[in-house]
Amino acid sequence: xxxxxxxxxxxxxxxxxxIMGFLPMIxxxxxxxxxxxxxxxxxxxxxxxxxxxLKVNDRVVTTAGIHGRIVEISETTFLVDVGGSVKIRFDxxxxxxxxxxAQNAAPKA
Length: 109
Prior knowledge:
The protein has a single domain (26-105), classed as SH3 type barrels (Roll), CATH 2.30.30. It has two helices and four strands; from the N terminus they run αββββα. The termini are far apart. By secondary structure, it is an alpha+beta fold. Strands 1-2-3-4 form a four-stranded antiparallel β-sheet. 7% of the residues are buried. InterPro entries: Preprotein_translocase_YajC.
């Protein structure tokens, strides 16, 4: 009788200990989501919205650091005038969000 009581108590404690053992892992996943995944998703959403709002004559900076002015917009690309008579076609994803916003906010000369 004493043996069965000890086994029941040990079995009950083991179940609660299992959940407590997973608690740190769950907390790590939650912290990782809020500090890493969620901000990246927001940044990607903002970049997509910015690309959709670009129009002809907007000044942009590509991810390669090339500065220019949008001359033509197609479904997946921009034709960018980089100076003189040089025009380069870039994929829409090649536009750098932060640098282009800063350049468009600056007064145009």
